[in-house]
């Protein structure tokens, strides 16, 4: 029962659903009926829905049939009226056709005329439109033609402006034409062509600038030289105003000819041909010598094209490369001044161009870029100068180089570049210059000393006398009073050396010019260099002359006299330096000249050499001594060699008249002591194993000759018997043996006032041993054998006592 109720309820629901679907189908547009039908097919009551649909269709057919039956009579009446209208319409059609035929016949000519008028109007309209379009196109074509002409004449910047007007103003008005499209497509190519051509001009300009930078620098440095000369003239004449031209003037003063190699290089490469100018005419400036238009054109073109940064980077990169090439010095630059000059000209030319670009363009180069390049150039230039200047051995070349560096620095300083480091480097070169000067003057002094005759300067007239006095500060009232001919005490090398010292001072002063040094610094530099000249160069030259093997006593004596006068002249050299530097010697920290010490040392060396030379001469004479130590004959005169030696000493000391007294006295005393010592050594030498009393007598005659020479006073100034003391050892020894006064010697030995105080027991024993051996082997007095034996015993006794004295002395 319950199942029956449930089935009935489900069928009612299905029937309601089908009814709803049918209503939707009736009221919904057929395009949207798909979802409704799908819901039917998705359900399970498809058959029942179809039955219900068939039922509904039959109901609608019945309603349609009823409605048609209701309106049938009205439809028949309408058809009847329509048939009547058709007949009338046929008549009207015939009338209209007839009327149209007549109208066509009558209006045929009018239609032909109207057609002709239509064609004329159409042509007229076309012509007018064509003229209007041509009027729009003609400016475009004219601008394009103008563009081509500008391209042909290489007027690239106006061509770029024309291209810009053509692209933005004219072409948009006629952009739909095919030829305009061709132009539009060609515009980027034209821009690239302009860009490439302008870049090519810039490259030619850069290459030409690189080749001709030395010419540009040469003109700038000559201008700076002219300006410096003008400043010097202004400094000498009181004048109010600036003494140096402004930087603007620096751009407009140049004075050389820069030649170009071709017409192209004149116009496009950046170098113009300038005729030589007279010195007193205004000289062309950088902008007159160099055509900068390729740079300006290229800069404007790249700026218009929006590639200014690319252009700036390219320009700076290329100029940096050129700077490195310019700063690379040639390997043989140090050989000639022209090598340095060309190197400096290239650097100056490079920076003159860059400075002009800096001040005539807006940002192509900036101060930071210029400063960076200058720092690089400064470091490389200083390094190159240090390297190459170290090879210079000619002081004139070093001085010329210094002047060139100063001119180089002054030129760049005009353009605003800092050059303090260059002047600092010049102080380094100053030391090298001093060294080269010292080497040069070493040769000069050597030549002077080698060519000197070491004889007093003879003068035969007042003119000659004044000439010598003018060369060397010498005053001697006694010499002035003497009649002509007369002689100066010094030789020619004194005034020559003195003048060369002054020339050296002048050479040092030349280097200090234009270095912006104070007078004190210049004075200090000159004094230090002069001290080196005196203490090292001149001193070495004098020492070399003094130490020469073949130098004679006369030359040494003259050297002592010469150095004495040069020593006295040092105060005049001090005054000379003071006069040229205007720095008083009393100023604090003023360096003093060491000339006095130099000449004193040379004089002392000459004195020592005199002593050594005298001793060597004495030794040479002593080598001629030929004593017969075994002779029994008693001689009556001194040995020949000693007579010759004494004669030599007399003549030698006669030359010492102009020497200072102490020098002559020391030389004489030294010679006598050396002679006495040598004679003693000759007497005691080991090779002389035996000697006789006769030989001692001959030796005594020689010593007496020496004492006679000492008593004769060969050199004035000695006190009485002072010179004879040199031979006192020999005299007491010989007196002891010849007088055979052993009892006195042995008795008084050790007492301060003993007669034979200078006789050493060892010396006496040595000589006694030589005589003892002789007595034993001598057979000449055989008949006095007993006396000989007594003497031998005495000798043995004395020898024993001498040995006792020696041993007691040692103990």
Shape: elongated
Q: How does the major sheet shape up?
A: 2 strands, antiparallel
The number of distinct helices, counting runs of at least 4 residues, comes to 28
Overall pLDDT confidence? 78
Straight-line distance between termini: 175 Å
Low-pLDDT ranges: 238-281, 779-784
Q: Output the helix-strand order.
A: HHHHHHHHHHHHHHEHHEHHHHHHHHHHHH
Structural class: mainly alpha
Helix content estimate: over 70%
Percentage beta strand: under 5%
Number of strands: 2
- Report strand order across the widest sheet: 1-2
Q: What is the topology?
A:
Layout: H1 2-27, H2 34-42, H3 46-152, H4 156-170, H5 178-236, H6 247-252, H7 263-267, H8 286-289, H9 293-304, H10 308-326, H11 337-360, H12 367-389, H13 395-414, H14 420-451, E1 458-459, H15 462-471, H16 477-481, E2 486-487, H17 493-512, H18 519-546, H19 553-568, H20 570-581, H21 595-622, H22 640-655, H23 661-684, H24 693-711, H25 728-739, H26 742-748, H27 761-777, H28 785-810
Antiparallel strand pairs: 1-2
Helix pairs in contact: 1-3, 3-4, 4-5, 5-9, 5-11, 5-13, 9-10, 11-12, 11-13, 12-14, 13-14, 14-17, 14-18, 17-18, 17-20, 18-21, 19-21, 21-22, 21-23, 22-24, 23-24, 24-25, 27-28
């Amino acid at each position: 029962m319950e199942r029956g109720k449930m089935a009935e309820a489900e069928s009612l629901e299905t029937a309601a659903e089908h009814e709803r679907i049918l209503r939707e189908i009736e009221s919904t547009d057929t395009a949207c009926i798909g979802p409704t039908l799908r819901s039917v097919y998705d359900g399970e009551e498809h058959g029942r829905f179809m039955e219900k649909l068939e039922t509904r269709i039959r109901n609608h057919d019945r309603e349609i049939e009823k409605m048609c039956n209701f309106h049938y009579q009205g439809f028949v009446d309408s058809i009847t009226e329509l048939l009547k209208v058709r007949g009338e319409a046929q008549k009207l059609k015939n009338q209209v056709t007839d009327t149209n035929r007549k109208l066509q016949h009558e209006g045929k000519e009018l239609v032909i005329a109207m057609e002709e008028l239509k064609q004329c109007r159409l042509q007229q309209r076309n012509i007018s439109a064509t003229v209007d379009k041509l009027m729009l196109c003609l400016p475009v074509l004219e601008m394009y033609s103008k563009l081509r002409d500008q391209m042909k004449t290489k007027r690239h910047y106006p061509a770029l402006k024309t291209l810009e007007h053509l692209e933005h103003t004219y072409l948009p008005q006629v952009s739909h034409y095919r030829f305009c499209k061709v132009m539009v497509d060609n515009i980027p190519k034209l821009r690239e062509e302009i860009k490439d051509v302008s870049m090519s001009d810039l490259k030619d300009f850069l290459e030409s600038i690189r080749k001709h930078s030395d010419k540009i620098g040469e003109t700038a440095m000559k201008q700076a030289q002219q300006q410096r000369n003008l400043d010097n003239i202004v400094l000498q004449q009181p004048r109010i105003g600036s003494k140096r031209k402004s930087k603007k003037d620096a751009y407009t003063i140049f004075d050389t000819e820069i030649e170009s190699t071709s017409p192209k290089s004149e116009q496009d490469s950046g170098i113009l041909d300038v005729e030589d100018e007279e010195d007193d005419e205004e000289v062309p400036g950088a902008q007159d010598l160099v055509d900068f238009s390729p740079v300006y054109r290229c800069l404007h073109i790249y700026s218009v094209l929006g590639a200014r940064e690319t252009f700036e980077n390219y320009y700076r990169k290329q100029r940096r490369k050129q700077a490195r090439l310019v700063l690379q010095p040639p390997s043989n630059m140090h050989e000639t001044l022209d090598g340095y000059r060309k190197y400096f000209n290239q650097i100056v030319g490079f920076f003159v161009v860059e400075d002009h670009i800096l001040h005539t363009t807006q940002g192509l180069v900036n101060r930071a870029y210029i400063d960076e390049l200058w720092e690089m150039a400064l470091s490389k230039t200083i390094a190159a100068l240090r390297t190459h200047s170290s090879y210079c051995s000619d002081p004139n070349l070093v001085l010329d180089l210094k002047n060139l560096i100063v001119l180089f620095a002054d030129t760049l300083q005009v353009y605003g570049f800092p050059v303090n480091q260059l002047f600092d480097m010049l102080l380094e070169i100053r030391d090298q210059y001093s060294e080269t000067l010292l080497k040069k003057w070493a040769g000069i002094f050597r030549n002077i000393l080698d060519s000197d005759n070491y004889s007093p300067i003879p003068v035969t007239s007042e003119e000659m006398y004044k000439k010598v006095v003018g060369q060397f500060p010498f005053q001697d009232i006694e010499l002035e009073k003497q009649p002509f001919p007369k002689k100066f005490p010094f030789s020619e090398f004194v005034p020559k050396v003195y003048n060369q010292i002054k020339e050296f001072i002048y050479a040092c002063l030349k280097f200090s010019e234009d270095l912006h040094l104070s007078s004190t610094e210049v004075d200090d530099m000159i004094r230090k260099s002069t001290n080196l000249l005196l203490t090292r160069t001149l001193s070495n030259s004098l020492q070399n002359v003094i130490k020469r093997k073949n130098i004679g006593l006369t030359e040494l004596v003259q050297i002592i006299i010469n150095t004495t006068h040069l020593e006295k002249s040092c105060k005049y050299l001090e005054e000379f330096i003071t006069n040229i530097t205007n720095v008083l010697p009393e100023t604090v920290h003023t360096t003093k000249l060491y000339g006095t010490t130099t000449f004193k040392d040379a004089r002392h060396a000459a004195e020592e050499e005199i002593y050594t030379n005298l001793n060597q001469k004495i030794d040479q004479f002593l080598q001629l001594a030929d004593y017969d130590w075994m002779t029994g004959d008693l001689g009556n005169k001194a040995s020949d060699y000693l007579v010759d030696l004494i004669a030599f000493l007399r003549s030698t000391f006669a030359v010492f008249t102009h020497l200072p007294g102490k020098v002559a006295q020391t030389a004489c005393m030294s010679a006598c002591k050396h002679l006495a010592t040598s004679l003693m050594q000759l007497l005691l030498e080991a090779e002389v194993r035996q000697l006789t009393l006769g030989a001692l007598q001959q030796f005594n005659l020689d010593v007496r000759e020496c004492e006679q020479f000492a008593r004769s006073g060969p050199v004035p100034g000695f006190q009485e018997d002072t010179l004879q003391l040199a031979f006192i050892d020999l005299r007491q020894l010989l007196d002891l043996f010849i007088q055979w006064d052993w009892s006195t010697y042995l008795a008084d030995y050790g007492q301060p006032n003993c007669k034979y105080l200078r006789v050493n027991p060892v010396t006496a024993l040595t000589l006694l041993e030589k005589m003892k051996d002789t007595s034993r082997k001598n057979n000449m007095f055989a008949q006095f054998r007993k006396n000989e034996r007594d003497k031998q015993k005495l000798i043995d006794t004395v020898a024993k006592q001498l040995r006792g004295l020696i041993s007691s002395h040692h103990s």
